[in-house]
TrEMBL record, chains A, B:
Residues 35-148 form the PurM-like N-terminal domain. This is PurM-like N-terminal domain-containing protein. GO terms for molecular function: thiamine-phosphate kinase activity. It comes from Potamilus streckersoni. It comes from the Eukaryota. GO terms for biological process: thiamine biosynthetic process. InterPro entries: PurM-like_C_sf (IPR036676), PurM-like_N (IPR016188), PurM-like_N_sf (IPR036921), ThiL-like (IPR006283).
């Protein structure tokens, strides 16, 4: 009997992929299976359907002590919709299933669905069904989102070539800064509960920008709409769930290319820097390995740079190189750092963490 | 704080539906949301997409002591595909997510996916993605299947009218008979484990037909194919997951009609009768309330009877009446029994059971 911790989550996904991949050739309408943000299915008439799904487990993916349950509802939908946008597609409908143990009240479930509903409205994706179940331990959530796009406009991870530029939306590391604050307050709260101390009230107000980014990440609907407006099709795209370094590695491995990014260009806001300083951490580490920002990382041909510059909130952080060049960052100290040397998180190997890994976004 | 057990699963689903239903009018492409076997979405060009999802939790929906994990993989896919067939649609692709605790080995997961893969092949539905997660307690499974059909051929629960005939595929109560045997053997096994007795080996061979029906229910692909072959479109349809009585009630409530079924016509095989006798139970009770047979219950106009008679493995068990007539069974003793008087199972109210209830198949 082999324990899962012996092979890790990526090892497990590899085993599953071996079994499931076997008969893909029998389904010519299947354009992409396991190995991208979404699976892609030819729906006929030049339109593709894309599908993504997440299974979220209390104490593995979230902690109800620091996560308001309505935020959890919003985030669960938002991060799946983010996978749809990462294919340059538009979400059409979603299902939401929940498993609830004795400790979960009807009021909590209603609040959860208020958050789900807010995301549903915000991203124009109706919740069309789902399932409810009892649970042995804690709160379980399973969400599936189906989207669509003209087949020729779907962006995969494997489409970029040497000479393309690498772009990122928004700013990075902020969600991780928020998590650091939440974890600190959580420890304090647990201590207070132990000591029956009623006096301590966590002050989140000062850290609102970073905590909100962690608890309520907003999938980048606006970016996909601007791509359509300006006639931009990214040559490759992925959403940043596990940190910039991990996502860059996926794009490079899938596209069989290398990359050079410039540390100085990685967009980080001041609030993130302040919190990194507070914990005596390195800000770039937050951006590279923090994860959960749910920004979009994408590439376009050089001919698109003038159009990209018309869009707000996008930063060009590097350029695609040959595979032989490797996956590197030019640091602030003008040194070339190999980004392949540090691996992402793996919650099967490292115990619980706030990281999640999808069948569809790992291979 | 309201406990879920106070309002029950149907009460909970009602609460969720209240929140989720609010903005359906904003999505004209949504043909049917919560309240049928699948949600139905207008995919354009006269084709509809249908979607169904299940969340299955160890110790709530299945027991690994009596369920080989490969069978569990097969069944998880089969029962979702069954929901697709219940809309008279064809499954196109599926996602499978799992949550696994420390007690689950890599070998078990591989076996699970062997079962998933067997169903995937048998029902021609590729597994295109999914998610993997750690779990705090036991094995978690979430499956979503998307299917399609010409919009005009989709069968709903609400389409039958007075004068139609009510038909059922296969035989009923067999899965429940299988469950009875498995539960008996499970008790024996638990006792043996407690007493460290190595001598007792359960003999399942004699009960193969009923146990297989419980562990490996086969969604009725053949029936949907025959409908297409003979040009039959059921006026309403549902799959039998919770027992004949419960499904009949759904059809009648949704279609605003009554029904008269004839106990003598309910198809039950001898093996089921023998086991009901063994436990001194009533065979019709197995058929009416046992559930998990995953046969199809459907209605057709009288003009279709000649075509239905060309098909194998279908029994006409009753006729649709006015709403005022009620929902009744003419018993073997020539008495009219009111089927609305006995309610289905509800695992939130009755503790764990082998019943499952979907958002999409309850309202």
């Amino acid at each position: 009997m082999t324990k899962i911790s012996e092979i890790g989550e990526f090892g497990l996904i590899h085993e599953i992929k071996q079994i499931v991949d076997k008969n893909y050739q029998n389904y010519p309408y299947l354009q992409c299976g396991i190995g991208d943000d979404c699976a892609v299915i030819d729906g006929g008439n030049g339109v593709s359907q894309v599908i993504t799904t997440d299974l979220l487990v209390e104490q593995i993916h979230f902690d109800l002590l620091t996560t308001p349950v309505s935020h959890l509802g919003y985030k669960s939908v938002s991060v799946n919709v983010s996978d749809i946008y990462a294919m340059n597609a538009v979400p059409k409908y979603a299902t939401v299933s929940i498993g609830v143990s004795e400790s979960i009240s009807v009021e909590m479930i209603k609040e959860f669905y208020q958050g789900v509903f807010r995301a549903s409205r915000g991203f124009s994706v109706p919740i069309v069904g789902g399932d409810t179940s009892a649970s042995i331990a804690g709160f379980l959530i399973s969400i599936t989102v189906v989207g669509e796009q003209k087949s020729e406009l779907v962006s995969y991870r494997n489409g970029t070539k040497e000479g393309d530029v690498l772009c990122v939306t928004g700013d990075l590391g902020r969600a991780y800064a928020g998590l650091k604050i939440l974890m600190r307050e959580r420890l304090q709260m647990l201590e207070d509960i132990k000591e029956n101390n009623q006096n301590y009230h966590p002050v989140f107000e000062d850290y609102k920008t970073v905590i909100q980014k962690h608890l309520l990440p907003k999938a980048r609907k606006d970016i996909i709409e601007e791509f359509a407006k300006y006639g931009i099709k990214p040559t490759s795209m992925i959403d940043i769930s596990d940190g910039l370094a991990s996502e860059i590695k996926h794009l490079c491995r899938n596209s069989n290319v290398g990359v050079l990014i410039h540390e100085i260009k990685i967009p980080v806001i001041n609030d993130t820097k302040l919190i990194a300083d507070l914990f005596a951490d390195d800000t770039t580490t937050y951006a590279l390995f923090g994860g959960e920002d749910y920004e979009l990382l994408f590439t376009v041909g050089k001919d698109m740079i003038s159009k990209i510059e018309l869009m707000e909130d996008i930063t060009i952080i590097g350029e695609i190189k040959s595979k032989e060049f490797g996956v590197k960052m030019l640091s602030l100290e003008h040194e070339y750092v190999d980004l392949l040397q540090r691996s992402g998180f793996d919650h099967f190997k490292s115990g619980t963490s706030n990281q999640k890994n999808n069948l569809d976004n790992e291979d």
